[in-house]
Fold this protein.
Amino acid sequence: MAKPSFSSVRAVALFEAAKGTLVLLTGFGALSLVHHDAQRFAEQLVAHLHLNAAKHFPRIFIDAAANFAETHLLVLALLAATYALVRFVEAYGLWMGRRWAEWLAAVSGAIYIPFEFYELFHGINWLSIVALAVNVLVVGLMLKALHRAQPADSSNMV
């Protein structure tokens, strides 16, 4: 079985950094809605994306925005910043070849897999399939990287 190269671990590092960046930008977006009409923004976004506001998911989005208080937006932004910080630390550790980061990537990727299977049982769609495949790939690469770091012969260890 081929062992993952350092470049595949670095590819995961870039992926984690991209996730952190996306969530951080989302958090800034939440902050930008403080002192503004979040429902109106949601309605404009749904219209801009040419979505039918009467359909299920756009309606949930608009209704949620209507009920968001400023404290909810601040908490959401704080949670986004925290999540992004974890992703950036993980990306740094993977880029630098740190074993703790490989463990963090394996565990954090594996946490999502049961939820993705649950989503697939409730309806197969391409987004659920891609999310599951990406997380399985990341976990597999990290497990191979962790295995690579193990001593070749552990029978001599006491």
The mean pLDDT is 85. The chain is about 75% helix and 0% strand. Helices lie at 6-32, 38-48, 56-66, 70-95, 99-121, 126-148.
